[in-house]
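Lab manual, section 2.4: Encoding a predicted structure.

Procedure: take the sequence of the chain (442 residues), apply the prediction step described in section 2.3, and record the output as structure tokens. A sample record is shown.
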Amino acid sequence: MKSSGRNMDGIGRRRGQSATKNISISILVAVGAFVLVSTLLYVLTMNLSPMEDNDLASEEDALPASSGSLRNVQNKILEDFPSIWGEIMRGESHLVEIDVNGIRTKKDGYNGVMAVFCKLDWDAYKNDPPSLPMFRFLVSRSGCDERKNQVVVDMAIIAEKTKAYDKSLQLKHESDVRSMNPTGFVFHESRVGSTLVANSLTAMNPDKNRVYSESNPINSALKSDNPQLFRDVVYLMGRTNRVEEENLFFKVSSIGSKQISFMRETFPDTPWIFVYRDPVQTMMSHLDPAKVAVNKNGRIMAVCTRARHDPPQDLYDLVKQQGRRIADLSDQEFCAAHLASLCESALRELSNSNNHGRAVEYDGVVDKLLDDIIPNHFGVAIDYEARQRVLKVSKTYSKAKNHGVDWVEDSEKKVAHSTPEIRGASELFLSKSYSDLKKYSA
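Recorded output:
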């Protein structure tokens, strides 16, 4: 029985081995086919990836054998990055918008912020600043207001990973991708020549200077009151892959003048200026009766009157100091009070700026930029060719867009055409701040 059992076992084992062998072969074939297809798909994906040129993997392979820890850092970055982020990492795609509606502030930062990246046509702006006087025009010109050209990512994640990647490249000394520190911030009262300042900073040396003129990411980050978010926005907007770029300037929207304190806390060593103008001239730029729009209720529709439906607390306080109530103000008075609130915010910071802040009056602003502010305050050398480029751009209306309109000085005309209401409101709310700003002027 044992012998029979052994024979049966032997037969059973052979049959079993034959069947098992067939099954094993089938499994091996299936596995081999899966591996082959997976490999082909991987190769095809890598070849079609936007990271094909100078891809991050080849950067990692170039690391010397002695850079094991550095290779591990970069490997970790690469593992976490979708290939579509390659253009961001290479400094080819730029931060054009952030959505802070879902922001949640944490002890060590924030989350819930989304970032929008797109390739900007910087040359179009640098070659002719007045044609694209505001950042939003550059965004539109570059097709970045179209979803198909946007890459949307989590802000905190992209900031963290980008900084780590930049650091790994810096240690290798093999990449031109880097983030420029801010050279200067430009704040202003509104309608006082700040766009001319931005155009001049760009025109003086288009290759070396990058200027953001009232960009949404900066505006939103300033309003967030989150220092880490503001630092991350500045870092990402300062990233460049152009060897020649050295200087980074931000012209902030006028309402951002109320956030100068926050900017200073975040970037305490960065110089800044506040541009202002004669009160009546400024008011006429906003409320010129020949140009200003009026709604069906007879209310003036101007930038300086937008907050009328929901005035901020500092505006209530400023008006109360004059013995008035906001509800009783005329549109001209409300406009003057709004502008005064911007000036007062700047004055508070100028009073203890440790020479990092300067007030710059509109009158003769180009000469002040060339002779003092740019070389002495912002610390950027300006040669003869740069001066000529600034003088040339100053002869074009700063917001000419594509019309190339020559600039005609109109300060005296504004005063001559001003109304008693405008002059009275200017005297009531703006005369003191105007006088005080002169004490800190260039």
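Check your result against the sample. The CA atoms of residues 99 and 119 lie 18 Å apart.
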